[in-house]
Amino acid sequence: MNPESTVFAVRHEAYEFATTQRAVADLVSALQPTLATLFKKGNRVLVKVNMGCTGARGPGDRYTTHPLIAECVIRALQEFGGIVSFGDDVARSGRHAEQIWRTTRMREVAERTGATLVDFVTTGAREVRGSMFYPRRYFVSNAFYEADVVINLANLRSHADVVLSGAIKNMFGMVVGKRKALIHHLFRNNPSGFGRAIADIHRVVRPHVSFLDLTTVIEGHGIGTAIRPVGVFLASTDAVALDAVAAKVIGYDTLKIWTTHHAERLGLGCADVSRIALEYGNFALPSMKLRYPALGPEENDSLYARASNFANNTFLRPRPVIQHQCTACGACGERCPSKCIHLDRSGTYRIDLRECADCGCCLKVCDEHAISLQFLGIAKLARLTLGKRTASPSLAEQIRTDVIQQLQKTPGGQTVDQVIAGMSRDINRQYTPASANEMLDDLAIEGLVVKAEARGHCRYRWANFASELGNGTGERESEYDSLDAGTCGGMNIA
């Protein structure tokens, strides 16, 4: 039987420049079709790296693309004459994208290679039709469409929502801002639906070549993470085959991996390892048994709960509104990838909700906390009828203050659940643990909170704070215990 796809593999056991450079060179020379046939000298090449989806994580955490891998792949592409840019969606950072770039060490990669580091928000974004009933469209960064060739540079890890995060899921980062969170919320307790959406997004933003790093791999996500050495680096023009082979290597092939399942059904590649040709030279491809992630429950919500969840994340969702605190600084308008925020005759900014993509970028960038989510029109009427709140207070207001107060009361490391438990009764009713987790990640990006991994749980503590509650003390807190803040994986334990 003729193979449907080919996956190329080389040994890569350590992140050392000479070792990584040689591994990348071996993969590039083995690739078919060759890079030389994919683009010409002077073509624009976008490398989609992974900079994480929450907080700011260092390379040692293994949630992000390793900077040495990124540097060596970029140099190889430049040798073929490509004009290289690279990046990921960092809309969560607001004004603090530089913090993420420096923590992930991608800023160093840009400085050493001369490649352009791209913020996927500042390039603007567009609505792109998918193949699903809902979501019908995805808000995709223009960086993808401005490139002649797209290279997918992913790293493999255990993932509680989709079992395995690899080449297919890495392209999910082409979707800008809170539109990714919307997809998470739409398919709560529905791993098949979530995997189908990820596969559909991969169909929309399909890369030309994918690389997948298995040098070290996170296992047991959601239970108690650990980093295990695997020692393999893979590449293929078929991201589906790449993830299927990776699952076989780490012993996840017996699990139902919905991303590869749905991607194969969409005709995006081959998920059957028996129909994939493996080219791995003269070394034995590992066969390991990594600890499984916390496997989420299959959908067992009632029909009412499913309908309510769908409505609250679609036509009854809250919308961003600029309030009277607006100082007309223009930061929201500059940051908006839809360019739907404009200065009106009264001298304040307004959001054209007909054009708004609900990406949340304006919420993250407003220092005056003048933008909040509010229920409008039929959504407001529905909530009034049910006796529920018609305004969703900005995370940067109530929940931010409450999280800060709780951390100040108890300086030791706390999990998200512990922070929530200590918050006021009113805030606890209004916000989910996931919302507190998002705020904690925002504080970490701003350098106010540090993270550490302890017994499989992500804990937070103060790094420093200044005038956060208007006290003007400018105090700086010292480290409270021996946990290493640099080792946290940023796990969402909400």
Give structural notes.
With about 500 residues, the chain is of the alpha/beta class. A hairpin with a 6-residue loop joins strand 9 and strand 10. The C terminus is likely disordered.
The parts where pLDDT drops under 50 for at least 5 residues are 465-494
Measured between the Cα atoms of the first and last residue, the distance is: 47 Å
The CATH homologous superfamily name of the largest domain equals LarA, N-terminal domain
Radius of gyration from CA coordinates: 23 Å
The CATH class of the largest domain: Alpha Beta
Helix content: 25-40%
What is the multimeric organization of the chains shown? single chain
Average of the residue pLDDT scores: 84
Shape, please?
Answer: globular
Strand content: 15-25%
Helix and strand topology:
Elements: E1 5-11, H1 17-30, H2 35-38, E2 44-48, H3 67-79, E3 83-88, H4 97-103, H5 106-113, E4 116-119, E5 125-129, E6 137-141, H6 142-145, E7 149-159, E8 163-165, H7 167-170, H8 179-186, H9 191-204, E9 209-219, E10 226-236, H10 239-250, H11 258-265, E11 276-279, H12 303-312, E12 319-322, H13 331-335, E13 341-343, E14 349-351, H14 361-365, E15 371-374, H15 377-386, E16 391-392, H16 395-409, H17 416-422, H18 425-430, H19 433-445, E17 449-454, E18 457-462
Parallel strand pairs: 1-11, 2-3, 2-7, 3-4, 7-9
Antiparallel strand pairs: 1-10, 5-6, 7-8, 9-10, 12-15, 13-14, 15-16, 17-18
